[in-house]
């Protein structure tokens, strides 16, 4: 990655939003606590065989960070999610992620937004939203490999949408187990 690597925020590489029901009382839900204490094996159970590893650390300045390693399509993605919002019912995580493709390493920005909504009828809805943006290094990587942004975006959208549709209900169930264990 070059020292001038920048996020190209006006270009969307992929965007996926999936919802699932959480079967737990609202007052026991704490997404931040769940995410930042998610055991490695539990993370792996939330999207087999894509999820490879998860852990928790901090940035140099002490902000919470979730490290996730997963396969998205043909890319092995190392996420470095920094918490920009870390509340009981809402986490907004941003990562400049390293991606190992069949053609080598590159980077993308991934924004992961996790939220729980009380539907007012005793049910809860979990929303798992994932949006990725290219970086300047990624665009140079595409050019060097003879691939258009449109081709890369179509492939990433298909892979990310598929991945999100599989992990969201499993994340919801994991959040519920975590909540019930705390209550």
Question: Which features characterize this protein?
Answer:
about 180 residues; alpha+beta; seven-stranded antiparallel sheet; 7 strands; about 30% helix; globular
Explain what you see.
By secondary structure, this protein is α+β, with helices and mostly antiparallel strands. It contains 4 helices and 7 strands, in the order E-H-H-E-E-E-E-E-E-H-H. The chain has a 7-stranded antiparallel sheet. It is globular, with a radius of gyration of 17 Å. The mean pLDDT is about 95.
| Residue windows where pLDDT falls under 50 for at least 5 positions | none
The string of secondary-structure elements, in order, is: EHHEEEEEEHH
Query: Helicity level, as a percent range?
Result: 25-40%
Distance between the termini: 45 Å
Structural class: alpha+beta
Strand order of the largest sheet: 1-7-6-5-4-3-2
Largest sheet: 7 strands, antiparallel
Number of helices: 4
Strand content: 35-45%
Integer-rounded radius of gyration:
17 Å
Number of strands: 7
- How would you describe the shape? globular
Mean pLDDT across the residues is 96
Topology (elements, then pairings):
Layout: E1 14-22, H1 31-36, H2 40-45, E2 51-58, E3 64-72, E4 75-86, E5 90-101, E6 104-118, E7 124-134, H3 136-144, H4 149-182
Antiparallel strand pairs: 1-7, 2-3, 3-4, 4-5, 5-6, 6-7
In short:
The chain has helices at 31-36, 40-45, 136-144, 149-182; strands at 14-22, 51-58, 64-72, 75-86, 90-101, 104-118, 124-134. It has 183 residues and is of the alpha+beta class. It has a 7-stranded antiparallel beta sheet.
